[in-house]
Amino acid sequence: MDARRTLWGFALGVVIVVSACSPFAPPTSEPPPNVYLLQWEQPDGGDAAAKSNPLCPTLLLSSPREAPGYVGASMAYTEEPHRIDYFAHHRWADSPARMLEPLLMRALEQSGLFKAVVRAPTTAQFELRLDTEVLQLVQVFEPTASKVELAVRISVLDMNERRVLIGDVLEITQPANERTPYAGVVAANRAVDRLLTELQELLRPVIEPRCRGIEPASRQ
């Protein structure tokens, strides 16, 4: 009887091991990843209406491009120079460039610097085009702190004169309150706030002289 029980126990163990290794075995469940958004918290906390100016040029906003390493929805971090890693259980809702596009649109519309802001493809006539490229959005971990580094290349082209009016890189460094992925998300959103404000300030002295009826002396 003991030998028979031992044999059955051995056989049952083999079945359990084989079932665990089988491709038809039910997969182990893992919690879904935490998903985050990039959003624009305007200084007044409200959603101001677009401030179109019929005396100013129309702008085409091209879809933002993405530098290598920032193409997908993975959230990037780094702990040492020249190396990039991605959080396993935290990700963006979309790629940083795709999330940034509607925020750029709102910031441009509310700047009061354009007759209209349109996206490609369009049949509308436009005088200026804004190209952007997300060069970096990464949480940098240091021994006792962390920060988010955001860099976006900005190019404004005059389509009539076929020349570049603005070619610059906006670089934002925003400290994070903690060394955690969520603290990095909060810092990234603050960095976006600063980026959009700096973009409006960068555009103003170049675009305002192209608005009819605005005297140069009135610019601050």
Explain what this protein looks like in three dimensions:
- The protein has 220 residues and is of the alpha/beta class.
- It has helices at residues 2-21, 96-109, 181-207; strands at 34-36, 58-61, 65-66, 74-78, 85-92, 116-119, 128-141, 146-158, 163-176.
- Helices cover 28% and strands 30% of the residues.
- Strands 1, 2, 3, 4, 5, 6, 7, 8 and 9 form a 9-stranded mixed sheet that branches.
- The chain is elongated and about 60 Å long.
- The model is unreliable at 14-20 and 216-220 (pLDDT under 50).
Topology (SSEs and partners):
Layout: H1 2-21, E1 34-36, E2 58-61, E3 65-66, E4 74-78, E5 85-92, H2 96-109, E6 116-119, E7 128-141, E8 146-158, E9 163-176, H3 181-207
Parallel strand pairs: 1-5, 2-6, 2-7, 3-7, 4-7
Antiparallel strand pairs: 4-5, 7-8, 8-9
Number-wise, the strands total: 9
Query: How many domains is the backbone divided into?
Result: 1
Query: Taking Cα atoms only, what radius of gyration do you get, to the nearest Å?
Result: 26 Å
Low-confidence stretches: 14-20, 216-220
Morphology: elongated
**Share of helix, binned:** 25-40%
Give me the CATH superfamily: ABC-type transport auxiliary lipoprotein component
Mean pLDDT, all residues: 86
Largest sheet: 9 strands, mixed
Question: Which CATH C-level class is it?
Answer: Alpha Beta
